[in-house]
Amino acid sequence: MLYLGIDSGTQSTKCIVLDLENGDILTSASASYELIDGLPPGHLEQHPADWISALDTAVQGCLVKIGDRKAEVRGIGVSGQQHGLVVLDAKDQVVRPAKLWCDTSTVDQCAQFDAAFGGKSGLIELAGNAMLPGYTAPKILWLKQNEPQHFAAVRSVLLPHDYLNFYLTGEKTMEYGDASGTGLLNLKTREWCTPLIDFIDPALREWLPPVTSSSKPAGKLRSGLADAWELEGEVIVSAGGGDNMMGAIGTGNTKPGVVTASFGTSGTLYCYAENPVIDPQGEIAAFCDSTGAWMPLVCTMNVTVATEQVRELFGWTIEQLQSAVDATAAGSNGVLFLPYLNGERTPNLPSGTGVFHGLTTANMLPGPMARAVIEGATLGLAYGLKRFRDLGITAKEIRLTGGGSRSAVWRQLAADVFGAETVCLSSSEGAALGAAVQAAWAHAGGSVTLESLSNRLVKLDESTRCFPDPSRTTLYADLLEKHTSLTRALHEKGWL
């Protein structure tokens, strides 16, 4: 049997075909799209129609490649970028473009939630999480306050992957994992938090789908799509989930002790937890996962976006960047970089900017500056890992994904910074693979466990395993303290 895994991200949508019997990914295809140009600073939006078009292109690209084997497709799973706001009217038409996870235009709305519910601590006590600009809830309030004509037309609120599931099945659903990223779900009860919903508007109660278990399919593939794609028999569409939730499944992060670190445009660090992990400081997001458990997560907004900036600054190829970093000693000859080029989510600095610190005539050179950028981006994630450890989470092994993980230099640097073994996966398709595995699990209907499927289908690339060097780990622990203290001091002065 074959299963399609679809990963709809900020830049493109990819589809893979998983052969359940041998665990092979038979083929893949993708289609890209852009952000909407010309929006004010902090506003980042896309047209949901672009996701639909890309999904069709990617799926059909895969089906053409597998030929007659398309008759073996039995399930589809969808991974989508978290937190995005998709609003539909009474005719199920999109009301306005989707505001994305990286949109930071909702700082004022977050402040309103803080004022109404006793600040960060009050919100955490109520529902388990602070209210951050990236979450869906402040986007809905922003829409009400800034575009009342659009808000008046709304009759359904969905997340990006839910909208794609709706396209595939005609059913509006939302599972616990992605729902927990809205800011409106009570993490302890797995129910919508009525006080938060009513603060936006009581009508929102009717616009949100009921939340359900990730083990329940979203529905069956619509007959019109099955015919257009020339699929035979019944094809189910699994609940799907947010990209991080699907990435956890696709990296085998379905048991305690494993941590996944994604080095993409943004960075994420997350793990499996059998009980809610609620951070009283609000820096670790207390999400549900897509297995029926929980997934504490930290997100930073500046990883490969920072390294690409420095690469373009010096006119380097990727290989030249890696060589310059490898030729520079750990600690970058005293240069420290605070990588807040796009603002930051952890720590919560929506208006933050980047800072080079410690420059002298001896170290203001391409090599030290380039290594400082990679170290700074990695230290940003290490800040979150330290918070994990403070909350009792053990990191025995860190599985690396994303574009940055393809760099051998960066993999070793990460092991040294994190003070833990790092390893990559045999497949780079973490979220898409996770979506395909979840589809197989949903199709099995309880006859197998998700952990057993993940253990069999997710394979490590042992050639990439790195071990931390104790002396460099000690150095980076000191740099993390300096990185954190400098960030705090500049922020307290209003300079960051």
The name of the CATH superfamily of one domain reads ATPase, nucleotide binding domain
Structural class label: alpha/beta
Global Rg? 22 Å
- Number of distinct beta strands: 24
Give the integer mean of the pLDDT values. Answer: 95
What does this structure look like?
The chain is an alpha/beta fold. The chain has a domain at 2-242: ATPase, nucleotide binding domain (Nucleotidyltransferase, domain 5, 2-Layer Sandwich). It has 18 helices and 24 strands. The strands form seven sheets. Strands 1, 2, 3, 5, 13, 14 and 15 form a seven-stranded mixed sheet that branches. Helix 15 (408-418) links the parallel strand 22 and strand 23 (421-425). Helix 1 crosses helix 6 (160-169) and helix 2 crosses helix 4 (136-146). The model has no long low-confidence stretch (mean pLDDT 95).
Short description:
By secondary structure, the protein is of the alpha/beta class.
Q: How are the elements arranged and paired?
A:
Layout: E1 2-8, E2 12-19, E3 25-32, E4 45-46, H1 48-66, E5 73-80, E6 86-88, E7 98-99, H2 107-116, H3 119-127, H4 136-146, H5 148-151, E8 156-158, H6 160-169, E9 174-175, H7 176-179, E10 185-186, E11 191-192, H8 194-200, H9 204-207, E12 211-212, E13 219-220, H10 223-228, E14 236-237, E15 241-242, H11 243-250, E16 258-263, E17 267-271, E18 285-288, E19 294-300, H12 304-314, H13 318-326, E20 336-338, E21 355-357, H14 366-390, E22 397-401, H15 408-418, E23 421-425, H16 430-444, H17 450-457, E24 460-466, H18 470-492
Parallel strand pairs: 1-5, 5-14, 5-15, 9-12, 16-22, 22-23
Antiparallel strand pairs: 1-2, 2-3, 4-7, 6-8, 10-11, 13-14, 16-17, 17-19, 18-19, 20-21, 23-24
Helix pairs in contact: 1-6, 2-3, 2-4, 11-16, 12-14, 13-14, 14-15, 14-18, 15-18, 16-17
